[in-house]
Amino acid sequence: MSVGYEAPFRPMAVLLPPRPREPQPLPRVTMRHAILFVTAVLLVATVAHAQAPDAPAAAPAHEALTQEPATALTVIIKWLPLLMKGFLFNILISVLAMGLGTIAGLMLGLAQISQNRLLRQFAWVVTQFFRNAPWLVLLFFAMFMIPFQFNVFGYIIPFPDWVKAIIGFGLPVMANVAELLRGAIRSIPNGQWEAAESLAFSRNKTLWMIILPQCVKRMLPPWMNLYSLITMATVMANLVGVSEMLTLTAEVHAAEGGRPELLAPLYGFAMLCFFVYCWPIGRATQYLERRFHVKT
Amino acid sequence: MKAAIGEPAASPWTPDQPIVSIRSVRKSFGALEVLKDVSLDVSKGEVICIIGPSGSGKSTLIRCINALVPIDQGSILVENQEVNDPALDKLKLRRKVGMVFQQYNLFPHKTALQNVMMAPIQVLKQNKAEVEERARALLAKVRLTGKENSYPGELSGGQQQRVAIARSLAMRPDVMLFDEVTAALDPETVKEVLVTIRELAEEGMTCILVTHEMKFAREVADHIYFTDRGVIVEHGPPEEFFAEAKDERTRAFLGQIL
C-alpha cells in the first residue's frame, strides 16, 4: 500500500541515543529549612492553643476570677525552669554515656585488631553482641543487673538509677565506637603500613604514631552522628524511671490537670529542645565531613 | 655461611662478598607462582636495574629482600644474614635496607621534616637535635630546602618522592630499594627524581631499582636483569644488554619499549 509521498523518517524517541543528562543534585537542608521548620512548629502550637477551649482555672474556686486560664504558652513558661533542668539532665546522661562508651569502645576496637587471637575473638564477640541488641533492652539489662549499691573495701558506692542508665547507654556506644575505629584503621591505605614497616617501625609504634593519628579525622563525623543519636535516645530512660525530660513533661502535664490540648504543646516543646540541640551537631558533622574529605 | 641477625655471625660479611645474594627463590600467592627459582647477586656499590613486563614478579622480588613478603623456598642473604630465617629480627634487617615506593607513602599528618626525622628518633632512638640537623641536610641534598614545614598534601608528586627518598636515607641504610618510583609521576618531575637517584648511585650507595626508565637504566646501571613471568630471562651490563639481547623474549620486550 503506497502512501503517495515519502514521509520523512522520524525515529521514535526511544530509538535515539541517550542524551547526556546533568546529574540531579541532592536536596540540601539549609538554615532556611530549619527556620521554616521551627516556624511551622510554633505556628501549629499557636493554632492548637487558639483552638483550645478556655481552660478551667487550675486554682481553687475563690481565686478563679483573678486566675488567668492556663494556656499552653503560659504553662510552658511557668514550668520552663523544671523542663530545662530535665533537658540538661538528658544532656548530662548523653555526655557521660558518650564519654565512657568512647573510652571503652576505643579499647575494644584496639582489642579487635590485636595480634592475640583469643583477645581478638573475644572483642569481636562482645562488639557484635552489643551492636545488635536494641538499646532499650540493653538499658533494661543495665537497670536490673547492676546492683543499686556496691560494697568495695568497706566503702558503699551507691548506684542511682541515672548512673545505671549511663552505663546502659554506654554499652551500644562502646560497640559502635569499636566498629568505627576498626573501620577507620582498615581505611588507611596499606602503603602506610608498608612504609612504616620498611622504616623498621614496630607494629605498636606504627599503630600509635602513624595509623591512629590519621584515624581521628576519619572517625570524627560518624562519632558526632552517634552522639546525636544517643542524645535523642536518652529519653528512653523515662521508661526505667529516671527523672529526665520526658518524665518531667508527663508530670507537668499531670500537674496541669491532664488536659488533652496541652499534649501537643508540651511534647512539642520537648521535641523542639532536642531539635535545637541535635540539628547544629548534624550541620557541624556535615561541615567536618566536607573538610576532612579523604582521598584514598 | 648463614647466621641470624642477633647471633654472632658465623662469617661476618666482608666487602668482597655480594651484599645481597638471592638464591633459587620461589614465591607463590595461593595458586599463582610469582617467582620461580630466581637467583641474583649484588655487590656493594653496584646499581642494579630490574626491568620487565607487568606481573613478572619484579616488585615481589624486591619486597622479599626487605622481608615485606616472605619467601616460600630458597634463600636471600643481606650482608650474609638470612632474610628467610624465622628467628630474624626484621627490624634490624630493615635498618640496613631502605625502600622507596611508587606511591611515595609519606605520612600525611606530618610535615616533610617530621617525616624524615620520625624513624631515626623513634626507631634508632637518636638525639633529636642531631637528627634534625641531618634531616635538614638530607632535604637540602634532595633539593627541597624551604619545604621542610610543608605537609605532603602541599607538595607535588616529584617533591613527595624526593622526601620519601630522604626519609629512607635518614636511616643510613646499606642498600636502597626503589620500586618503580617514577611510574606515578609526570615526565617533567621524573627527571628531578632520577637526578637524585643518580647522585646517590654516584656516591656509592648500593641501589636496586625496578624501573621502566630505559634511558636511565642504560646510563646509571652497572647490571640489568630482565624478568618475565617469574624467571630472570637474561641479564648483563647495559651496553651488552641493550645492544645485543640474546633471548627472544628480551628482544620482543625491548622492541616494544625502545
Features:
heterodimer; A: 296 residues; 66% helix; 3% strand; B: 258 residues; alpha/beta; six-stranded mixed beta sheet; four-stranded antiparallel beta sheet
Can you describe this structure in just a few lines?
The complex is a heterodimer of chains A (296) and B (258). Chain A is built from 9 helices and 2 strands.
Can you walk through the features of this model?
- The complex is a heterodimer of chains A (296) and B (258).
- With 296 residues, chain A is mostly helical.
- Chain A has one domain: MetI-like fold (Orthogonal Bundle), CATH 1.10.3720.
- Chain A has helices spanning 31-51, 72-112, 117-131, 135-145, 161-187, 190-198, 203-233, 245-255, 263-291; strands at 149-152, 155-158.
- In chain A, strands 1-2 form a two-stranded antiparallel ribbon.
- In chain A, strand 1 (149-152) and strand 2 (155-158) form a beta hairpin.
- In chain A, helix 3 crosses helix 5 (161-187) and helix 4 packs across helix 5.
- The longest helix of chain A has 41 residues, at 72-112.
- The relative contact order of chain A is 0.13.
- By secondary structure, chain B is α/β, with parallel strands linked by helices.
- Chain B has a single domain, classed as P-loop containing nucleotide triphosphate hydrolases (Rossmann fold, 3-Layer(aba) Sandwich).
- Helices cover 36% and strands 23% of the residues of chain B.
- The mean pLDDT of chain B is 88.
- Classes of the chains: A mainly alpha (296), B alpha/beta (258).
- The interface between A and B is medium-sized, with 16 and 25 residues.
